[in-house]
Amino acid sequence: MHTLQINSIDKNEVYKEILPQIESLIQDESDLIANLANIAAVLKTTFDWFWVGFYLADTQTKQLVLGPFQGPLACTRIPYGRGVCGQAWEKGETIVVEDVNQHPDHIACSSQSQSEIVIPVWNQKQQLLAILDIDSTELACFDDTDAYYLGKLAEIITRYLG
Ligand code: SME
């Protein structure tokens, strides 16, 4: 098992430290669920966000189904196009929400969530594999830096598990 060592408080530096460590973690294991579970754990313990988890794409029912996560219980199914997660699937892009209370179609799993970032993870056929969803109890917690590095994380998942 790898030990994560975070020496810097700068967000860029933290991402630059953990991404190669996550990559080496998943290189040694082929099971998707096991790897997504560890990635959620690494992100939660590193950044102490409120909720970190994956929704897995069910292309038959066109729904997102709750997968490995860290944090309080969450809704189990999100239809394509609904909520921030379903919209990220529909649009095919990362969505940053500074204030979830202002978002017209945010699905509130907890009233404590105030801001959110949602990143699509693709398989190697460019179909949706999963959605990485992260919530914070602070407003405007996520920015372009998070979108950039979490997008890089999504690429790593695609490369090894997609
Ligand atoms: N807020 C998400 C739902 C998932 S929970 O935040 C864990 C959404 O609007 O899609």
UniProtKB/TrEMBL annotation:
InterPro entries: GAF, GAF-like_dom_sf, Phosphatase_reg/MetRdx. One of its GO terms (cellular component) is cytosol. SMART domains: GAF (SM00065). This is GAF domain-containing protein. Belongs to the free Met sulfoxide reductase family. Residues 31-161 form the GAF domain. It comes from Neisseria zalophi. It comes from the Bacteria.
